[in-house]
Specification:
With 210 residues, this protein is an all-alpha fold. 70% of the residues lie in helices and 0% in strands. It has one domain (7-209).
């Protein structure tokens, strides 16, 4: 349901991916700045310019294997006014930006079908699907993903240390989940199923409200 075997989808997905990860990383930067940390701002990350957020290797990997990444936004918790809850909030800002883009795409998708503008249906469908997948992927509670940063704020101190220790193995576990045959099918199959459920749920809500 999420990505169909249409060669033209890739031409649509590349700019959508750039927009989506730019919004994701910029949301982290703006949230940190709002809470008192200007580390990202000093590095030029307080912007919606994709060039400030794209990682060259991550962008190439998108073209080669369909999976990539952006440059992580630097955050110094010492600059935050209340790091105990603001660090999780900064971590949540990225996935929330993707949720916002998904909801916006779904609303515009419904409006386009009502007005007969079917030309926009495919890009809007892909935008909603992509952003839901990015949101769910980043919410996985595994360092260095945002889900771990969110979870850390709700854990008692001893468990925070254990999660920090897991961070040393997080990238290796992530590689296994994303690239190892058999494992990646289960992992992404689960994400696709969750994205499909959320997509259809949101479509139903906004179709009813409309």
């Amino acid at each position: 349901m999420i990505f169909r075997s249409n060669p033209l989808d890739l031409l649509i997905l590349i700019p959508l991916f750039i927009i989506s990860i730019t919004m994701h990383e910029a949301a982290h930067a703006y949230a940190a700045y709002a809470f008192g940390d200007d580390t990202a701002a000093k590095e030029g990350r307080l912007t919606l310019n994709p060039l400030a957020h794209l990682d060259p290797l991550g962008a190439i990997m998108v073209l080669l294997v369909g999976f990539g990444w952006a440059k992580p936004v630097p955050v110094d918790p010492r600059n935050l006014r209340n790091p105990n809850w603001q660090m999780p909030a900064v971590a949540a800002a990225g996935p929330l930006a993707n949720l916002f883009l998904a909801i916006l795409s779904i609303v515009l998708l419904i409006l386009s079908t009502h007005t007969g503008q079917s030309f926009f249906a495919e890009p809007l469908f892909l935008s909603a699907s992509l952003n839901l997948l990015l949101m769910l992927f980043n919410l996985v509670p595994l360092p260095p993903l945002d889900g771990a940063g969110i979870l850390r704020g709700f854990l008692p101190r001893p468990w925070q240390f254990k999660l920090d220790e897991l961070g040393a193995y997080g990238p290796v576990i992530l590689i296994v989940l994303v690239f190892v045959p058999g494992v990646k099918e289960v992992f992404f199959g689960t994400l696709y199923g969750m994205a499909k459920f959320i997509f259809e749920f949101l479509m139903g809500i906004f179709a009813f409200l409309g």
